[in-house]
């Protein structure tokens, strides 16, 4: 779990020279060699624009551009660094700032109230470690419909996989599939650069088909290598608008020798609220054929319980909003506990997303979560990287 912090480039955005000096001293004790400082948000943004920064440690209450405004401008950057927030303000304000940053799409590792100690500070930094994957290299600049059409013809779809492991013993249970798009210039784009445009331009069915086809090819390869776990694939509400979608899923799986019971289709709860009849039929027929159904990002939609009542889900994934920081945030912890209890009462497998620390792992395990997914276990990785990770994880698991 430990990373090499010596390779990190850290920017401290803090108007107090005393606090800034203390943070620099802590970073030095932890082996961080590259540390920059800024006294307000505007100066911080200028330094980020001038060169690569892996992580920003940012105060909230600063003269000029404060930390809240800084987060908004930071989110507009194409490659935003990870963020740790610090503040002497009330904990409720700090927790709200964390949620706001994540709503902007930023990777908010966590937050600390002043005064803070070395141990929790070190734990937050270890989540990033020396691995810069996830902070640099992925572009979220939207594609055009024409670029998506060309990419579908040119094999632009690539996949990465994030493990899901047992909260009780750490055993590998499954993987979730994520889209990566190889752009014409050779760079990689994340799903946010592709999916909304594909949905708006009527291309999402083709994108989903290519993702699922490649996921089944990889699943078959893992089966042949002796692995036995589920593979999850995200689907769009527009995929659920096709009466032939169950036949496509089961037929494609069968062509690669994959049992439908090994497949989990993840549906974001807010997506299936408006047009009810057709998605209900499609989802029900998928369950009849043995395919698992997961309600993703649970807790973020407007009618969560209604969705659970009317759709035959088999898995509930609690959104990272209620997991990350739940050890410190009483409100998030209460919602986490309530969601887990509801899922268990309904007989669903419950997954905690966004688990980034050992403390969060232990919290969700005590509350009864079945599976854990997040950076504490592993970042999304290629199939080639997965084999090495699996061997290392199996030999080092102590949960």
Task: Describe, in plain words, how this protein is organized in 3D.
With 399 residues, the protein is α/β, with parallel strands linked by helices. The protein contains 14 helices and 15 strands. The strands form 2 sheets. Strands 7-8-10-11-12-13-14-15 form an 8-stranded mixed beta barrel, surrounded by 6 helices. The chain has a 5-stranded parallel sheet with strand order 2-1-3-4-5, sandwiched between helices. Helix 2 packs parallel to helix 3, helix 8 packs parallel to helix 9 and helix 9 runs parallel beside helix 10. The two termini are 13 Å apart.
What keyword list fits this structure?
5-stranded parallel sheet; 14 helices; 15 strands
Overall average pLDDT: 86
The number of helical elements comes to 14
Coarse shape: globular
* Percentage of residues in strands: 15-25%
* Elements, N to C (H/E): EHEHEHEHEHEHEEEHHEHEHEHEHEHEH
* Main β-sheet, spatial strand arrangement: 7-8-10-11-12-13-14-15
Compute the number of strand runs: 15
Residue runs with pLDDT of under 50 for 5 or more positions: 129-136
